[in-house]
Each structure stands twice: as C-alpha cells, then as structure tokens.
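Let us begin with a simple case.
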Amino acid sequence: MIEDELVKIWQSSPNQERVKFEKSRLMIDVQSNLDTFHRKIKTRDWAEQIAALLGMPVFAYYAYHFPFVLTKIASVLIIVWGIYVIYRLRSARKHKPTAFTETYLQYLYKSREYLNIQKQMLDNILYWYILPAMILMILFVLGPGVAGRLPKIMKTSAGIVGLSVVIYYLNKRAVKTQFIPRLEKIDKLIKVMEEA
C-alpha cells in the first residue's frame, strides 16, 4: 500500500525532481562501488608487496649460499624484479583520487583516470609481471644443471607456466568483470552530471 503511494507520488513529481533522484541514486551507487573497489585494490597491492618483501631475503639467501652461478644470477634478478613490482604498484596507487577534496565531477574524472591506470596495468601484466617472473623462476630451477634432473625440471617448469597462465586469465577476467563495468558507471554518471 505504501509502496504504491510512493510510486504515484514519484510519478506525479516534475521531471526535474526525478532527474535529481536518479542522479543522487546513481551517485550513491557509484560511490559505494568505488569505495569497495578501492579496498580490493589496496588489499591486492598489500598482498603483492608483502609477498615481494618476504621473497627478497629468501632469494638473497639463495644468491649467497647456492654455488650455482645461474641460480645466483636468477636470485638477484628476482630480487630486482620484486623491487620493480613494488615500485609499479606504488606508482599506480599515487593516482588514487582523494574523496571530496574537489568538486564531485573532478573526483569522478580522477577516479576514471585511476581505474584506467589500474586497468592498463592489468592489460599489460603479461609483460611486466608474468613473463619476467616465469623466466626468472625457470632460470632459478635450471641453475644446478640438467643432468639427471630433467623430469623434475620439466614438472617444475610446467607448474610455473601453468600458474602463469592462470594468473594471466584471472587478471583478464578481472578487467572484463570489474574494471569495465565500473568505468561504464562512472562515464554514465559523468554524463548525467555534465548535463545537469
């Protein structure tokens, strides 16, 4: 009964009031969506940075204690790659907009820019994250030599390649299911805000 009355009141209200209602509903939806998404990105970044930081002393130990030259080189390069990953994640994070320091429209523009930077980072993840890690880990495994270890090397390399493929497709799926819909919502809200 009350719902029907509210619908009648809403339908009888002037178009300008309906647009304001739709705009505010869209703003709340986009803001809630962005807040949740920013928390997810922050959690992902922290997990990656902690993993890199924990891996660095392990590979430093390997570089110092293992007698195999290829393993030493791979270990040092893995440490350098970990530093690069941390740098890349932190530099992308610098573009995160601060809420309500400017007009809401400027906040939306900056949010769109930030999401595009994050999306581009995932679009290029094969080149800056997956391939270097995969190649360096295979070099690390090959360090002691191949003689008598070929089956183990093949299994380990297949596991590394398989994990790399899974990481690649999970990131491509995230772009398609999480970034693109949010960017579309932001574009829609920007259009509504510019028309008002």
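The second case is a distinct protein. As before, the sequence precedes its structure tokens.
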Amino acid sequence: MSVLDNFEQWKDFLGDRLHQAQKEGMDQNVISDLAYQLGEYLSTQVEPKNAQEKVLADLWHVASEEEQHAIANMMVKLVKDEGNGM
C-alpha cells in the first residue's frame, strides 16, 4: 500500500519529511518552494488515490501559479504537526 492511498498516511509522511528538513536547517522559503514543486509533480504525474487528493488536484489545476504557491504553503501548515516529529 502506497502512502498516497490514505490521506492520513500521506499527511504523516509529509509531516515526517517536513520535520526532517527543519532539523537539517532547511530555510522556510526552500521548504515552500519544494512544496510547490511537489504539488506540480503530483498534479501532472500522479493520479489522485482518494477523495482528498482529487479535491487538491482539482484546485491545483484551476489555480494561478500564485494560488498554487498558496496551496503548497497551506499543505506545509496542515502537516506541520503530523508524523513523528512533534
């Protein structure tokens, strides 16, 4: 089973990666840029596996680039307390 199959597992996975990046001293601007790049990759290369991912994909496709950056930043905020890094 992929972490993309279950939205809670996906958030935990992203949370763990976020905490790892922060522990390594990654700047918030770099994290935001990586989140945007990940969103762009997922929107073009990965089929949504659940309803939540479908909503995010639909929002991403209708958003301007500025709005996509906002979505990526909101996902970072959403997962900041997820995973094992709390």
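The mean pLDDT is 87. The two ends are 25 Å apart (CA to CA).
Keep these points in mind for the review questions at the end of the chapter.
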